[in-house]
Amino acid sequence: MRVVDMARREINAKTDITFDYEEIKEGRKVAALRFRIAKNPRAGIPDPLRDDPHLARLITRLTAHGMAEDAARAIVQAHEPELVEWATSTLAHKLKAKEKIENPAGWLRKAIEEDWRPQPTLFSQEQAQARENERQAERERLDHDVKTAEGRKVDAAREKAAIMEFIDGLPEGEREALEQGFRKYLAETVPAIIAKRFTGGKTWSVDPVIRAKSIIYLQIIV
Hints:
By secondary structure, this protein is mainly α. The chain has helices at residues 2-14, 48-51, 53-63, 69-78, 81-96, 104-113, 122-168, 172-189, 192-195, 208-221; strands at residues 17-26, 29-39. The termini are far apart. InterPro entries: WH-like_DNA-bd_sf, WH_DNA-bd_sf.
């Protein structure tokens, strides 16, 4: 009757009806079953253990190994789901490997209440700490890179402002002469494709390569 008992637990826990049954025997042999079906009085009452699919599945896994439903609900309510998951999975592996466990429900209860999960060794703890140290170092490196990039943006903005303030403050004739001299300087120091980007005005400071060259050139001539 194990299959019927499992179905009864599932239906009684998750539907709006309940059922029970009794065996009708002929001698020592079960000849039939008489079912009694009724409305489930708990159907309209909120139940976190029933309404959460993960917790409901854990209760089912416990009762499937012979644990009473009330005991299974108490176990799931009192312990972290990861521990219950580990215990039921471990028991399933042991049973599949034909390991003799006379009382699976009792084994589950002790395994969960005493937390039989393997404790990490000193070596595994050191490995975990080393991985965490690496992650922390990576987070600090990324944070440094972000701050450095932000610093470079601030420096670039200051350079642009200083260059354009100097250029715009020159008389037109001096500015044109300065631009001609800078074009010759660029032609001698950078590839032609980059030198062509300079056309006067704001191009003194927009392109980072030209901006760097303009700072050097202005320091030479001023």
